Amino acid sequence: MGNNGQVFSGPDEELLTKMMAAINVDLDELFRTNICKCPVTSPPSPAYLSKCQDHLQKQIRLLQPKVIMTMGSLASQTVLGQNHQLAALRGRFHHYQGHPLVATYHPELLRQYPDLKKAAWYDLQLIQSRLEKNSG
Length: 136
Fold this sequence. Notes:
By secondary structure, this protein is mostly helical. It has helices at 10-22, 46-63, 73-80, 86-89, 107-112, 117-135; strands at 68-71, 93-96, 99-104. Strand 2 and strand 3 form a beta hairpin. The longest helix has 19 residues, at 117-135. The chain is globular. The termini are far apart.
């Protein structure tokens, strides 16, 4: 979690803002949350993630999002209940509670490895096409 309970902050928030602007989505239109509902200092345990998953499922049922985007391996693997590498999970739609879900790279990783941005752009285009299809 970023500063002050934010999901992203600083350079990660700036990159996420640019990513969403590239597909014509205003960051204020998004509900952002972490898979971990409380700040953790070490990798969360499976039991902790399970409890968080229950809370996340309730949020999704309440909000009924048009598209879900998970960012990073932990979020993607936890939400999808799979242990595949993120590279194998991204680039296509999955379904979570009846909602389309796209797994992609975390902004921090994209900043560390800029060559991954092309793959993330593909993921964003999937989301953009789904949102355009739903609005038309």
